[in-house]
Amino acid sequence: MEPARKPRVEPARKPRVERARKPRVEPARKPRVEPARKPRAERARKPYHPKVCHKMHPMSDIKAMMARMIESFDPAAARGVNAHFQINITGDGGGVYTLKVADQKVEVLSNVVQNPTVAIEVSAANWAAILSGELDAANAFMTGKLRISGDMSQMLKFREMFKR
User: Fold this and answer.
1) Confidence (pTM)
2) Over the chain, what is the mean pLDDT?
3) Residue 150 near residue 116 (C-beta atoms within 8 A)
4) Own/partner pairs for 18-23, CB < 8 Å, 24+ apart?
5) With bands split at pLDDT 50, 70 and 90, how would you rate the model's confidence at 54?
6) Angle 124-132/59-71 helices, nearest 10 degrees?
7) How many Cβ atoms from other residues are within 10 Å of residue 125's Cβ?
8) Residue pLDDT, tens place only, 81-134
């Protein structure tokens, strides 16, 4: 037979003393008063600044930027390149620019080439932002702001030939 077990005796607990809690007082809040807004016609327009707002470049700015791009052409990077780069710029100030790169020289053609090596389609505002350095061309391509069709290896050389 097994020995009888002793009943387990738990120690007596002290009674819990309730503390008096202070009532929570929230600070008084002032009602929010919004300033009255002027009607749209009376609001002042912010002045145009090309570094701040690239969405308003007129056509002459695009042409000037294209001229600066051609001035920045690096003939050494164009060694062995024989290609037509057609840039279709849409929107205000847009147009079609065809750059012919051959024999380490670049020239702008006024006509549209039937089968360009690389075709670039971009809005005027985004192209101006890319040329001014505000928008990265790779990011613009990934987000769909810049569409490229044709030989991508030539497009990579394009980036090297026309440094900012």
Assistant:
1) 0.60
2) 79
3) yes
4) none
5) very low
6) 40
7) 22
8) 899 999 998 888 778 888 999 998 998 887 788 889 999 999 988 888 888 888
Domains of the chain, by residue range, sit at 54-161
Mind giving me the DSSP string for 81-128? Answer: --EEEEEEEESTT-EEEEEEEETTEEEEESSPPSS-SEEEEEEHHHHH
Distance CA 107, CA 87 (A): 13
CA distances from 97 to 15, 44, 84, 87, 103 (A): 90, 37, 10, 5, 19
Is domain 54-161 classified as CATH 3.40.1050.10?
no
